[in-house]
Amino acid sequence: MADVSFQKVRKAFGSAVAVKSLDLAIGSGEFVSLLGPSGCGKTTTLRMLAGLEFPTEGEIRIGDRVVNAVPPGQRDIAMVFQSYALYPHMSVGENIAYPLKKRGVGRAERDAKVASVAATLQLGALLDRKPRQLSGGQQQRVALGRALVRDPKVFLLDEPLSNLDAKLRAHMRAELIELHRKLGKTFIYVTHDQLEAMTMSDRIAVMHEGDLQQFGAPMQVYEKPANLFVAGFIGSPAMNLLPGMIESSGSGLAFVRQGLRLAVGAGGQAGQKVTIGVRPEDIALGSGPFVATVRIVEPTGHETIVMADIGGQSAIVRVQPDTAHVVGSETPFAVRTSRLHAFDSVTGARLDLAFAPPAS
Amino acid sequence: MKTLAGRIAFNLFAWTVVLVTAFPLIWMILTSVKPQFELFRIPPTFWPEQITFEHYVRLIYETPFLKYMRNSLILGFTTTIVVVVVATLGAHSLVRFRYPGRERLAQMVLFTYLLPSVVLILPLYLMMVWLGIANTIFSLVIAYTTFALPYALWLLRSFMQGIPDDLEAAALVDGATRMEAFVDVILPQALPGIISTSLFTFILAWNEYLYALVLVNTDEARPLTTGVMSMLVSAFNIEWSLLMAASVMMSLPLIIIFAFLQKYLTRGFGAGGVKG
């Protein structure tokens, strides 16, 4: 049963439409990330769920209750803000206790719950401090503590890790995964960082310009991107997108562009404008039927990223660190046709094309 | 590094400015404790030959000074409370809520502040008469509110703009109502702004002369500014020693308030200048 659902939800600020027509059903206990670039509508979606914005059209449900007109405090949700939004004039203990206080929980019970949450998040020694006396990581924990203390049905997290340094972020990511597993509650997590979305989520909702692009498990989104946007957005380094055309080739069809010609086994029609997507790890430099020019070589230690020119377009290739490539040199390459993606260049939609393995 | 001569010159200049500014105040205090016969002596004396507090005693026991003081205090505090309550809620609304004409409204408020206050005297007086509240302290409260409110609103608006939206949103999610979020979270953050706005309004109400002169014509409602003048200054005689004693006592409340809250006042005037 869906714990949270959006039905044809639209949100406009004056003439600017932030969310177009969102249908999304999130299961109970799921960890779902809303992923997309800035301005894609993910934060607006979360704020609508929190009750901080009201949808222009459509219905939002938490459990089996329509919450469109329910004030934030009565939705049984807790939220962690990107800025943490700790009350500066209250101590850490008062900050964590605030949601309980507003719900009329007695002092003794309040203190016990604050102590228990503080113990979980290792904040026990900091309860009397003011937020400004804490480090970024500690502030982040307090914000989390304030959400945890109430035992809500749904947790909303708005880019909670974006203000932390890389090391702390990796650490907190692991802690959040652990926390979600322990609590078994529904987590809805807004981020523009695909690494966070990929590593933490049960499912990812990719959004772009107010539209839901794809909703699926991380590997499904990675392996079968629904359209050109998702293909380009998910994956780091990004998928290489090479536009071309389907042409008749002898008895069958082939995808053709400058410097590349791939036989199409099934699907497609001659004259169709098609963009193929190749992940950097699915191009093999060193041997193969095509030729690329090496432009830039970036060794990172555990792998080397090569920027190569394929028929006038630069493409990113991931290679083993022990292979040597000389900048400016021409090198043969092959693509793993079984892992190619194809999209309609006009609509951007995923196409069901099968590429024949190269004749050897 | 500055030379010694440069430092001395700078200090001399600074102290000259301070003395020139402070001299009337010093003269006021000295005059208020000189006996009557010493005031008009030629050549004049700077330090009193004899210190006396008789003028203060006369002022308190033989004149309606205390009544004026009471009126001024009521006037000052009531105006301050009305202005601060309305301006705080108004500024919050202008900053937080989205409604059509919000910016226009803020500009119109500023426009009323730009209007010379003397322009409003006659319309206000006629309104007070029509409402039947002319000659009361309440009429002055309304009048002062009309020109203190726009400034207070703008001052507090710039303060409130510095308070992150997320704080209030967090309070709402945590279960607070709009009003609770305002009281629990916004007010404590806006406190420096509220204090400096209060000071500004109180000083304005305490020192105002023109409206008090036109709108109130009875000792029962007269504040200190006009009360002292009508009591001690006539066409034929000015009671200098009493006037100086009254001036000293009128200045005292402001000096005390200033001494304690000065840092908020300067912070208030700087609000909105720097973001963050």
Explained architecture:
The complex is a heterodimer of chains A (360) and B (276). The mean pLDDT of chain A is 91. In chain A, helix 2 (92-102) crosses helix 3 and helix 2 (92-102) runs parallel beside helix 4. In chain A, the strands form four sheets. Chain A has a seven-stranded antiparallel sheet. Chain A has two domains: 2-233, P-loop containing nucleotide triphosphate hydrolases (Rossmann fold); 240-355, Beta Barrel (OB fold (Dihydrolipoamide Acetyltransferase, E2P)). Chain A contains eight helices and 21 strands. Chain A starts with a strand and ends in a 5-residue tail after the last strand. Chain A is of the alpha+beta class. Chain B is an all-alpha fold and 276 residues long. Chain B has two domains: 4-52, no CATH class; 55-269, MetI-like fold (Orthogonal Bundle). Chain B has twelve helices and no strands. Chain B has helices at residues 4-32, 36-39, 54-62, 65-96, 102-114, 117-131, 137-161, 165-173, 178-207, 210-215, 224-232, 240-269. Chain B is globular. The two termini of chain B are 33 Å apart. Chain A binds chain B through residues 47, 50-52, 71-74, 77-79, 81-83, 85-89, 98-99, 102-103, 146, 150, and chain B through 164, 166-167, 169-177, 180, 184-185, 188-189.
Per-chain topology:
The complex is a heterodimer of chains A (360) and B (276).
Chain A: E1 2-13, E2 16-27, E3 31-35, H1 42-50, E4 57-62, E5 65-66, E6 77-80, H2 92-102, H3 107-120, H4 136-148, E7 154-158, H5 166-183, E8 186-191, H6 194-200, E9 203-208, E10 211-216, H7 218-223, H8 228-233, E11 240-249, E12 252-257, E13 260-266, E14 273-278, E15 283-299, E16 304-310, E17 313-319, E18 330-335, E19 341-344, E20 350-351, E21 354-355
Parallel strand pairs in A: 3-8, 3-9, 6-7, 7-8
Antiparallel strand pairs in A: 1-2, 1-4, 4-5, 9-10, 11-12, 11-14, 12-13, 13-21, 14-19, 15-16, 15-18, 16-17, 19-20
Chain B: H1 4-32, H2 36-39, H3 54-62, H4 65-96, H5 102-114, H6 117-131, H7 137-161, H8 165-173, H9 178-207, H10 210-215, H11 224-232, H12 240-269
